[in-house]
């Protein structure tokens, strides 16, 4: 080899060696991309091995992390695919732990009860795949606040037995501007098959009833599917529940202010006639169909609370132990026992608008007409007042929607 050829050969060897050095510098210290079988592992093989060690279980927590205005009923939950749940823990920011249960197949978890409004919760979940490899997931969310939610307070309560005149009455704690959306989330059905229609008295009250009184012995079911329903802009429902109540015997009582007698009927037959004293000519009792909405063995009645005051602004009457009182209107109409009126029952109308029955002070004599009527009446019974000379009571003054004809009632529906 000549000297010139020798230099070229050395240069080529140097270039080749340099190339090997460059390749070595770009690879992991533990890897050998030449595949020379020297026991070293490539980066790709390292990544593949790491992936094989990771759990295949995929955990999903709802609602999404950092969500707000979450439902207090249906939002929270954990599911897993390609694995089974081994542990789920849910806590409020104050440290209170929320009870919940993993499903039988160990692929889902739900809280056992309703969450609190305006509360931040954190969920921590662990699952494992078929090879026992663990996966972990965490999320936190805040439930809807009272400011951004509405609830409906309803009557009657779940499990009650009520009279044939008892409507379903729902009062909302916020004004409802999308009445149709809210009404679509509320259903009322009865085992009697009667058609039930709902009527909005205002933006905060909706009552539901059939055309005629409920059928005796039937069962009525109210379902509230309001969770997430937007009742007004930015205001969402939170209730998700079902309640049932039973209709008792058919009792309707008829007060005749002219004859000063009350006939108590069951299934259309008179079971008792009771002398009464209705409102005086100056303070007539409303006429119309009225539903008993509350019962008090004894209660205080102060004229000042319903506008009956003297020149000094004091109540024209203030009786602290009125016996056997049953409310007929929001404005203060009652049918109640009276121990202070002597000789008036069946003879004179002397009250400030209530219907009085003879009774004993202390409400402890079961043999008085007032006690008998109280003991034989239930919430939802109807008292029809006639011949007083006053106007018919407003349908929304108490639970008295029966004073509106069926066509008018249905016209108040939003759907």
From TrEMBL:
Keywords: Acyltransferase, Cell membrane, Cell shape, Cell wall biogenesis/degradation, Lipoprotein, Membrane, Palmitate, Peptidoglycan synthesis, Signal, Transferase
Domain of life where this protein originates: Bacteria
Entries under Pfam families matching the protein: Big_10, YkuD
Record bears the keyword Cell membrane: yes
UniProt GO cellular component terms: extracellular region
This protein's name: L,D-TPase catalytic domain-containing protein
Keyword Zinc-finger carried by entry: no
Leader sequence segment: 1-25
Chain ranges of the L,D-TPase catalytic domain: 251-386
Pathway: Cell wall biogenesis; peptidoglycan biosynthesis; Glycan biosynthesis
GO biological process, one term: regulation of cell shape
Molecular function as annotated in GO: acyltransferase activity; peptidoglycan L,D-transpeptidase activity
Residue positions of the active site: 336 (proton donor/acceptor), 354 (nucleophile)
Region entry Disordered, spans: 28-76, 96-115
